[in-house]
UniProtKB/TrEMBL annotation:
<dbReference type="InterPro" id="IPR051457">
    <property type="entry name" value="2-oxoacid:Fd_oxidoreductase"/>
</dbReference>
<dbReference type="GO" id="GO:0016625">
    <property type="term" value="F:oxidoreductase activity, acting on the aldehyde or oxo group of donors, iron-sulfur protein as acceptor"/>
</dbReference>
<dbReference type="GO" id="GO:0030976">
    <property type="term" value="F:thiamine pyrophosphate binding"/>
</dbReference>
<dbReference type="InterPro" id="IPR029061">
    <property type="entry name" value="THDP-binding"/>
</dbReference>
<feature type="domain" description="Thiamine pyrophosphate enzyme TPP-binding">
    <location>
        <begin position="70"/>
        <end position="222"/>
    </location>
</feature>
<dbReference type="GO" id="GO:0044281">
    <property type="term" value="P:small molecule metabolic process"/>
</dbReference>
<keyword id="KW-0560">Oxidoreductase</keyword>
<dbReference type="InterPro" id="IPR011766">
    <property type="entry name" value="TPP_enzyme_TPP-bd"/>
</dbReference>
<protein>
    <submittedName>
        <fullName>2-oxoglutarate oxidoreductase</fullName>
    </submittedName>
</protein>
<dbReference type="Pfam" id="PF02775">
    <property type="entry name" value="TPP_enzyme_C"/>
</dbReference>
<dbReference type="GO" id="GO:0045333">
    <property type="term" value="P:cellular respiration"/>
</dbReference>
Length: 257
């Protein structure tokens, strides 16, 4: 056997073996102390491992705090331009319908520059999962006001509090997309307690199961904290979230078909 023949045999498709590893990589995270992203990453990793779909899952992360998500979850990833993750996920899922495709987006990304993309992807009912992290602020770029910023909430660009008379009311994205025919599962969860994490994990798993059954788009909003943007400690952030965000963004499932 020649060296060339031996090499061809090694790299031939039938000899390729996917080497499974832990989905959650042992890398130090760049997220701020108390940030919800780390918990969400762990939950997604656990669901992927338990469903045994590590080699079939593709994540799409756009601009935002989650831009480096590929450093922490050992799956295939694609990088999208700001707000364009649903468009890229649409193409990926249509070209590779056997894959489990999900986007991982913040509120500044999804609800602002990417509002058109998410609305139309939901309306079309693309067979993807959307993980939407809502912390009511632009976390990565300095704590500016986002579409989800609460009324009177202080941010870098609303130092006297959000004035709804000039900026409009905070957008309830889950309520909006739940009205569209293409969404099959729309839920709003959190991750500040063990019980909340268990509910979140159940929701994310249901989203991936919907993808497997070709049911259409699953939209999972997660109300989270941004200690740095809010200028609060992690403990204070959790309390502020419960006192201020939960009443406006109530937890629970809005749609399940």
């Amino acid at each position: 056997m020649t060296a060339t023949t031996e090499i061809n045999n090694i790299i031939s498709e039938e000899n390729l073996v996917y080497k499974k590893t832990d989905v959650l990589l042992d890398n130090e995270m760049h997220y701020c102390p108390g940030c919800t992203h780390g918990v969400i990453h762990k939950v997604i990793a656990e669901v992927i491992e338990e469903m045994d779909i590590q080699d079939k899952t593709i994540g799409v992360s756009p601009v935002g705090c989650s831009v480096l998500a590929y450093n922490y979850l050992d799956i295939d990833w694609q990088q999208a331009a700001h707000g364009r993750a649903p468009a890229l996920a649409t193409a990926t899922a249509r070209l590779m319908p056997e894959k489990y495709v999900f986007t991982y987006q913040g509120d500044g990304d999804l609800a602002s520059i990417g509002c058109a993309e998410i609305i139309h992807a939901c309306n079309r009912g693309e067979n993807i999962v959307v993980v939407f992290v809502n912390n009511a602020i632009y976390g990565m770029t300095g704590g500016q006001m986002a579409p989800t910023t609460l009324e009177n909430q202080v941010t870098a660009t609303s130092p006297y509090g959000r004035d709804c008379a000039s900026t409009g009311a905070p957008m309830k994205i889950s309520e909006m997309v739940s009205l569209l025919p293409g969404t099959r599962f729309v839920t709003r969860q959190s991750a500040e307690t063990a019980g909340a994490v268990r509910k979140l994990k159940k929701a994310i798993r249901k989203g991936f199961e919907n993808t497997r059954e070709k049911k259409g788009l699953s939209f999972i909003e997660i109300v989270g904290t941004c200690s740095s943007g809010w200028k609060l400690s992690p403990t204070q952030s959790n309390e502020w979230m419960k006192e201020n965000m939960f009443p406006y963004y109530p937890l629970g499932t809005l749609k399940d078909e």
